[in-house]
């Protein structure tokens, strides 16, 4: 299932730990918002790990499970792009780490003719 996960905490330490935990399961699309496709066992493992990190009296974690229809209806404006499928393919302009700009080596032998 596709999940949209948002979190917040007044504690910088817990926010960093939540971010680190989520990066093991999902792709960050904003500072404290992640998207992922997870099967039930993976999802349960993620929830267990988050429960160990958060302070339920001070922190907030919201997890929205979305059907395929709801995910297709989701509107994305600007960057990053949309997480498209279970294999974590991101459309161009998507996950910052996946599309980190690299300088073009104009002297390379394997450049396409149109460059």
CATH topology of the domain at 2-72: Alpha-Beta Plaits
Stretches where pLDDT is under 50 for at least 5 consecutive residues are 88-105, 110-115
Order of helices and strands: EHEEHEH
Fraction of residues in H or I helices: 25-40%
Mean pLDDT: 77
Main pleated sheet: 4 strands, antiparallel
State the strand order across the main sheet: 2-3-1-4
Q: Sum up the overall morphology in one term.
A: globular
**Name of the level-1 CATH class of the domain at 2-72:** Alpha Beta
Number of strands: 4
| Rg on CA atoms, Å | 17 Å
Based on the structure given, which CATH architecture of the domain at 2-72 is correct? 2-Layer Sandwich
Number of helices: 3
Structural class given helices, strands, pairing?
A: alpha+beta
How far from one another are the termini? 40 Å
Portion in beta strands: 15-25%
Short description:
The chain has helices spanning 12-23, 40-53, 68-73, and strands spanning 2-8, 27-30, 33-37, 60-66.
Q: What features would you describe in this structure?
A:
There is one protein chain. The chain is α+β, with helices and mostly antiparallel strands and 115 residues long. It has a domain at 2-72: Alpha-Beta Plaits (2-Layer Sandwich). The protein is built from 3 helices and 4 strands. The chain has helices spanning 12-23, 40-53, 68-73; strands spanning 2-8, 27-30, 33-37, 60-66. It has a 4-stranded antiparallel beta sheet with strand order 2-3-1-4. Strand 2 and strand 3 form a beta hairpin. It is globular.
Give a quick set of tags describing it.
115 residues, alpha+beta, Alpha-Beta Plaits, four-stranded antiparallel beta sheet, 3 helices, 28% helix, disordered C terminus
């Amino acid at each position: 299932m596709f999940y949209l996960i948002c979190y917040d905490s007044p504690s910088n330490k817990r926010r960093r730990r939540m971010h680190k935990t989520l990066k093991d399961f999902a792709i960050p699309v904003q500072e404290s918002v992640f998207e992922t496709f997870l099967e039930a066992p993976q999802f349960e493992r993620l929830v267990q790990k988050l429960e160990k990190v958060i302070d339920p009296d001070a922190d907030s974690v919201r997890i929205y499970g979305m059907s395929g229809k709801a995910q297709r209806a989701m509107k994305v404006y600007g960057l990053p792009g949309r997480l498209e499928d279970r294999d974590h393919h991101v459309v161009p302009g998507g996950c910052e780490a996946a599309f980190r700009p690299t300088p073009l080596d104009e002297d390379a032998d394997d450049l396409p003719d149109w460059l």
